[in-house]
Structures are given as C-alpha cells and as structure tokens.
Amino acid sequence: MITALLFGTFLIMLLVGVPIAAALGLAGTAAIATAHLGIISVPTSVYTGIAKYPLMTIPMFVLAGTIFDRSGVAQKLVRFATSIIGNGRGSLAVIAVVVTMMMGGISGSGPAIAAAVCGVMGPSMIRAGYPRPFIASTIAAASATDILIPPSVALIIYSVLVPAAPTTSMFAAGIIPGTLAGLALIVPTLWLARRHNLGTELSHEPRPPFWSSLWDAALGLFAKVLILGGLRFGIFTPTEAAVIAVAYGLLLGMVIYRTIRLRELYSMLVEAAEISAIILTVIALASVFGWALSTLSVIDPITQGILNLGIGEGGVMALLIVLLVIVGTFLDGISIFIILLPLLIPIATAYHWDLTWFGVILTLMIAVGQFTPPMAVNLMVACRMTGCTMESTVRWVIWPLITMLMVTIAVVIWPDLALWLPRRMGF
After folding, report:
1. Do 271 and 129 fall within a single domain?
2. Total structural domains in the chain?
3. Distance CA 92, CA 193 (A)
4. What domain range includes position 4?
5. Listed residue (273, 220, 233) closest to 106, CA to CA
6. Is residue 44 part of a domain?
7. 133 and 16 within one domain
8. What pLDDT score was predicted for residue 106?
C-alpha cells in the first residue's frame, strides 16, 4: 500500500507537469508521513543528501564551463577542427561533433555544452543549408558524450553514491568510452550529411592554417591536460581540480584572451549558481525519495525478483539496459542514480561486476536518455537554440541513438574499454 502510494504519487505528479525534483520530494514525504516513519527524517534526508564534500566540485565545474564558454574557447576550437577536417560536404556537422567532445573535457555538463556549441556552430550550419532538426540532433547527441568525458557531473555523483568507485577512477574510466562514443557518432553524422547532400555550399572555402589554429586553441585544450594530469600525479584532489579549472579559465578569459570583462564576472557567477542550485536541489529532494525506498524495504524484494528470473548474467544486463533506456527518456541522470542505484548496486554485487565499469555503463545509458525524446534535456536545449520542434528531430536522432547503443554493447562485451586506463593510471 505504502509502496503504491510512493510510486503512484510520483508518477501522477510527473504526468501533471510537476518538476521532477518536487515530485520526488513530495512523493517521498507523503510515503514517510503515511508510514509514520517520522516527518523529521525529511529535512534530515535533504541535508545529508547534499552534505558531501565531493559535491563541492559541481558548482566549481559548472562555473568553469560558464567561464570557458564566455572566454571564446569554443570559437578557437571550431577553427582548429576546421583546419583538420576542412570544408567539404558534411564537414561542418563533423566539426560540431569534434568541438563538442573537446568542450566536454572542460565543462562536463551536456546541456551547457549543447547551448555553447549551438551558439557557435548553429548559425553557420544553417547558412550552409543544414536542416535545423539535423543540427539539433547532431549537437544534442554529441553533447551527451560529455557526461563520460571528465570532468563529469554524472560521474562525480555516481562516485559520491558508490564510495567503492572513487571520482579519480570514474574520471579515468570514462575517457575511452566517452571518446569512442564521440568518434562513433561521426559515422552516422557524416553518412546522413552525404546522403542528403548537406554542406556542399562550403566545399570551396579554404581551410584555416593548421599551425596557427593549433596555437590559438592550445591554451583551451591544455585545460584537459591540467585537470587530468594534476589528478594522475596527485597534485590535487577532484575538488581542488575544479577550483584550478575556474582559476585557469579566468586567466584565459580576463588576462590572455581579454574576452571577459570584470563586470561580466558577476553575471557568470549568478548563472553558475542557478545551474548548481538546480542540480543540488534535485539531489537533495531525490534523497528523500531514496530514503523512503530503502526504509520501506522496497528494494530488496525487487532485487531478489530480478536475480531469480533465471535469465542469467547476460540476460539481467540486457534487462537493465532496456530499463535504463526507458527510464532515461523520462528522468534526468541525477534522479536515475539516486532512485535506482539502491536497486542496481546489489545486483552488480551479486554478479561480482566491477562497480567502476558498471558506473560507466549506467552513465552511457543516461547519455542516451539525454537526447532521446520526450524528456531529452540536451535535445530540448538544442531545439530551442536552433528554432525547431523536438518532434521534427525524430527521423534524425534515431541514428545516433543506435550508434550509442552499439558503443554501450561494446563496453559491456569488453570491460577493459573502461577499466584499462584506471588500472594503467593506478587508480
């Protein structure tokens, strides 16, 4: 009865348009009050949900992404990518994917990267004759890979919820699958562009000089080296790395490039604070829902039921992937982690799956959900920036979706795609 109330209240609130964070918090509170578990546990769960030291990295990395966006790094990366790829048929679409991957190593937030790359690449792609739904689908799918490429907010939250998978290990584990996913997305992007003869208007334009483009982009690209190198050699912790990224971004924007003025700093701080507040509010209120789940002993029967299905280890993994694809189209990644990890981690432990590898698979599936309608946050941002409807992107977004699922299957079959680098780096 209480379990039905918990999930029923949550689903009804989602259907009537209540924000996910509020729906999670209110459903959890209703179940706690009805079961007489002590209403004082609600504020306690809210506090303990966000009173975790590693979560301090989130506001800093969000601020770093805002600073790098305003500093003009994206434009320099576009010029550098163009110098490598050129201006042939479909080249702008490929450049958008490559630039999105490069930006992902700086911010780690898919919607923020989607907005930044759409702002830089969108107008030129529209002028070159690319359909707006194609632009939105391509950039939304490519920006979904950014939650795998460190620094990643999703990987940070997973490591907070699963202490056996530390942040440094998750960062290292996400590099190869994230890069592989980005490179794999180039295949359907280029195939669609050439099939529909997109971007031919720019085929005769000259390439920018390679060495000067590399020189201009080098300082922006060095941010990745600075963050990952510092973590690898133990110079600073992930939280300190986030602060270093902010300081480095300010150095580029205010001193070297001089694209950020002092009076613009306040607006960037406000923007980063608003985004961070949204993320932390979801974590705090979803913690109430998660506490109700665990206290009401809802998780154990479901876990045992899945383990006793008799479909074997591979069948359970396939079932979880299908489940996450469906859930990921309706819920954001943070909510999925907080709601489902108490269910999924016991299953992973029962089959002796490596929790770092398992975290990468879950993050890959969340990445798929970020550009799969109807609740695709990256796609929403990209559609708004390019001026098209989400419905118009369906015919284009299906191909990146298939590609990402193939990458997920590859990581499932070959776990070393995620685990080799953490072992090599000693994490």
Report:
1. yes
2. 2
3. 9
4. 1-39
5. 220
6. no
7. no
8. 65
Place of tokens 């907080």: 338
Q: What is the pLDDT of residues 295-330, one digit of tens each?
A: 877 777 777 888 888 788 888 888 888 888 877 777
Count other Cβ atoms within 10 Å, centred on residue 194.
Answer: 15
Give the other-Cβ count within 10 Å of 402's Cβ. Answer: 10
Q: Which of 323, 329, 322, 321 is nearest to 378 (CA)?
A: 329
Separation CA 165–CA 423 (nearest Å): 13
| Same domain flag for 169 and 271 | yes
pLDDT at 154 over 80: yes
Does residue 34 share a domain with residue 100? Answer: no
Where does the pLDDT of residue 289 fall: very low under 50, low under 70, confident under 90, or very high at 90 and above?
Answer: confident
Q: Using CA atoms, how far apart are residues 299 and 325, in angstroms rounded to an integer?
A: 20
Cα 96 to Cα 75, 124, 261, 355: the distances in Å are 11, 11, 27, 33
Do 301 and 355 reside in the same domain of the chain?
Answer: yes
Residue 49 included in any domain: no
Please check whether residue 302 lies inside any domain of the structure. yes
CB neighbours (10 Å) of residue 266?
A: 9
More confident residue, 382 or 109: 382
Task: Look up the pTM and report it.
Answer: 0.83
Q: What is the pLDDT of residues 326-375, one digit of tens each?
A: 777 777 777 788 788 888 888 898 889 999 999 999 999 888 888 887 76
